[in-house]
Design goal:
This protein is an alpha+beta fold. It folds into two domains: 2-49 and 233-359, no CATH class; 53-228, no CATH class. Helix content is 52%, strand content 17%. The chain has nine helices and eleven strands. Strands 3-4-9-6-8-7 form a six-stranded mixed beta barrel. A hairpin with a 5-residue loop joins strand 7 (151-154) and strand 8 (160-169). The longest helix is centred in the last third of the chain and has 43 residues, at 228-270. It is elongated, with a radius of gyration of 34 Å. It starts with a helix and ends with a helix.
Length: 361
């Protein structure tokens, strides 16, 4: 405690060197955050996007109507450990407001195998029974509907589906907001299987497990859209950004450490008589090293706080919010570098002969 009080007193007495140390450490933190911090922010944003359901969507399309996408295989796919959710869609068809007839606005309609609520969240009405329809809340006006009532009719007039509610499409089914959904009748074959996996890195094994479950009779009739390539691209991009960030951060910290060492050495040379007087009064060499280092550490803490706050605010206002843990980590590294950089000058000061120092005019 006495060491801290003495370090603060000497830092306050040596205002010029303390101010220079504060400026150097603040510049280290500020430069690191507004440069490397932006890379960290971009990497965090990429990681967040990869966690969105749309980025984790895996699609299997039966292009030749092989019938391997059905309620039975869907039930097995749902139980795969890496699958977060799975839904099957039938072949889409165009429909119109049945009251208006063929002259009305056409909208696409998708038959849904399984739980319709996994595809769209109900906003009005009730969930459909097999053969009943929901209309997208965004398309009610296009169908000349004030409320989700009436019925949808195919453009050939052969089939109709009572409208029992309105929905909003859930991720990653945003494209289904363009029309309506029909709860598929028993025996309706599926055309597309949409799966949301728990992590993009598990895309490869999940595709293998799903295809082995579906067992399509003709491999040429299967179209697979997987996020595996996207995951590899994001992984490579993050690795490159991380490597660039580490290199730049090390350069900034090394340059800042050099300037801190120069400031402390200059202060030691200027105040060598004061340090020599302390030696003649009985302070030990380790205590003198600790005094100079702690004094630098105190001023570095002030500079680190100012630099981190300033850099974080600048990034936030320019649209690159830096993660708080990264900002704090930069501050800790900068303070530690300043403390380590002060050790050689402090050791040099402790090794000076106090008698010769006091004789120096």
């Amino acid at each position: 405690m006495a060491l801290m009080r003495e370090a603060w007193a000497t830092a306050w007495a040596a205002k010029v060197s303390s101010l220079l140390t504060i400026v150097v450490v603040a510049a280290m933190c500020f430069a690191s955050i507004v440069t490397v911090g932006r890379s960290a922010s971009a990497a965090a944003e990429v990681a967040a996007r990869m966690e969105q359901a749309g980025a984790r969507r895996l699609s299997v399309v039966d292009t030749r109507e092989g019938g391997f996408i059905n309620p039975r295989t869907l039930g097995v796919v749902v139980e795969v450990s890496t699958v977060e959710s799975a839904n099957a869609l039938g072949a889409p068809f165009d429909a119109v407001n049945g009251v208006i007839g063929r002259g009305g606005e056409r909208v696409p309609v998708w038959p849904v195998l399984g739980d319709v609520e996994n595809v769209g969240s109900l906003v009005r009405g009730r969930l459909p029974q097999p053969g009943e329809a929901l209309v997208s809340a965004d398309r009610l006006r296009a169908l000349s509907l004030a409320e989700p009532v009436g019925f949808l009719q195919t453009v050939d007039g052969l089939s109709s589906y009572p409208i029992v509610g309105a929905y909003r499409a859930r991720p990653p089914f945003e494209d289904l907001a363009a029309g309506g959904l029909v709860a598929a009748l028993p025996g309706t074959p599926g055309r597309e299987l949409r799966v949301v996996i728990d992590d993009v890195t598990s895309a490869g094994p999940t595709v293998t497990a799903i295809l082995s479950t579906l067992a399509p009779p003709d491999a040429q009739g299967v179209q697979v859209e997987s996020p595996a390539a996207l995951a590899e691209t994001a992984k490579d991009l993050n690795a490159q950004m991380a490597g660039f960030g580490r290199t730049l951060l090390l350069l900034i910290l090394a340059a800042g450490g050099f300037f801190v060492a120069s400031v402390v050495l200059s202060d030691v040379l200027i105040r060598r008589r004061d340090l020599g007087r302390r030696r003649t009064l009985g302070i030990s060499r380790p205590d003198l090293v600790a005094l100079v280092t702690v004094r630098t550490l105190v001023t570095a803490l002030v500079g680190g706080l100012l630099g981190c706050v300033g850099g974080w605010v600048v990034n936030l206002t320019t649209g690159f919010p830096t993660p708080v843990d990264f900002t704090a980590g930069v501050g800790v590294l900068a303070v530690l570098v300043a403390a380590v950089a002060a050790l050689p000058p402090a050791t040099y000061a402790a090794q000076l002969d106090p008698v010769n120092v006091m004789r120096t005019p």
